[in-house]
Amino acid sequence: MATDPLFLLRDHVIHKRPIVFLGADGKELPTLASATDIKLASDTDKPVILPRATPTAYKKSGSTEDYYALDSLVFLAQNHTLVYSSLLKEGISVGISPVSILDMRHLTDFLTGKVETTDNIVQKKRPAPADVTASECIASKQRKHEPHYPSFEAVKNDTEVSARIMEGERIISNHYSVLDSSKDLSGILKVYRDLYPEDFANGKSATPQRGTPGSARTGAASRPNPSPAGVPAPTRLPPPSKRAHRIPLIVVPAAATSLITMYNVQEFLQNHTYVPNQQVRELGTKKESRITLERARIGHPKPMLYHIVDSVEKFKPDDWDRLAAVFTVGATWQFKKWKWEDPREIFKHVKGFYVKLADEKPKDTIAMWNVETIDVDRSKRHKDKAVVSQLWDSLDSYIAAYKPNLMQ
Fold first, then answer.
1. Going by C-beta distance under 8 Å and a sequence separation of 6 or more, which residues neighbour residue 373?
2. b/e map of 382-405 (b: 16 or more CB within 10 Å)?
3. What's the whole-number average pLDDT of the chain?
4. Per-residue DSSP letter, 98
5. Which of 17, 186, 291, 322 fits as disulfide partner to 308, beta carbons 3.0 to 4.6 Å?
């Protein structure tokens, strides 16, 4: 039996052998979610224990050097009956990067024994993992975690590297800006008006000034007298807005000729891979009316959520307020039944993106609209990641500057 994890896993799937998940302490776990290692049987007496991130011999489509990790293939083997959108959602929820929609069918056929090989399998000399037992694995990890104190030069070099990284970072918020409220406080103003109508009748400002009588910091002795009996009781403060009202909306074209539609937008924005619409349709993927996209962010415990649609017909008033971006095909008919009729007015309120193939010229209308052109290479898929990263950076900057209420 081949020693590459890919072929070991295939043998387990075909012969329905159990796949064992191990924690950091070497104990067996029921699921892959919290496991650190995966134990597979081999043709020797000792099983093979591999870290879940061990690269396999299956190369990612559109890449020359990236190979799928073992946990991604194990997750596919256990959930290959799911439709891709469900597979993607389930994988992200347990911290696993699912396989690309381009590779899902061929990988499933290979792992289940329907085909003997695929073009993406690269059988080259790779460092074969050593056959170790669970106890040997634990002992090895203990040796790795022995205290190690870096030299002064190592610390100095690390500090210099960190300084260079920070020079290229873009700060969205800091310990000062996070104190600035972006919420609507009109409800509090209404309560103040009901409690102290004489302030408004005398032409006084409803907002207490810092350091003056009436300020919340001067204590109870400086507060105005209670309102007379004829003044109505203060109304209840409105409940805090639900998180759904802060989820940015992204609109993509409904036209089948568009490079980005509901069929491939999730693969493009979430997996950083452009897949032509026709290719996705041939896989039998159904078009969804709305996609909820989760995007992990460094330094944030929760992912950023986005709602993606291709129609504004069912938009409510607050949906227009949380509309953050629109992908355009450069045609005015795309904006029928919009809140703003003129595309030039639309892109004053919404971030615009125009996605085209890198070797094609943009439409003439694009030069008159405030949109950002995104060039996608026709065949070199390894360039997609940089393109999508640029897109996210632009959208992040736009939301932070013009729609901070959508920052979760």
1. 354, 356, 362, 366
2. ebbeebbeebeeebbebbbeebee
3. 79
4. P
5. 291
Q: Could you tell me the pTM of the whole model? A: 0.52
H/E stretch holding 371 reads: strand 371-376
Burial class (CB in 10 A: 0-12, 13-18, 19+), 126: middle
Nearest to 52 by CA among 43, 44, 40, 42: 40
Mean pLDDT is lowest, of 34-43, 304-313, 322-331, for 34-43
Place of tokens 């085909």: 115
Residues 293 and 85: their CA atoms lie apart, in Å, by: 10
Query: How far apart (Å, rounded) are the C-alpha atoms in residues 67 and 80?
Result: 19
d(CA 131, CA 43): 11
Mean pLDDT, rounded, for 12-19 = 90
Cα–Cα distance between 103 and 59 in angstroms, integer? 9
Instruction: Please give the Cα distance from 94 to 270 (Å, whole number).
Output: 16
Instruction: List strands edge to edge, sheet with 304-309.
Output: 291-295, 304-309, 249-251, 323-327, 351-357, 371-376
Residue type at 145 in one-letter notation: H
Q: What's the confidence (pLDDT) of residue 94? A: 78
CA distance 222 to 211: 12
| Strand positions, DSSP E, 241-357 | 249-251, 291-295, 304-309, 323-327, 351-357
**For domain 244-406, which architecture applies?**
3-Layer(aba) Sandwich (3.40)
Domain with CATH 3.40.50.11990 in the chain: 244-406
> What is the CB neighbour count within 10 angstroms for residue 356?
17
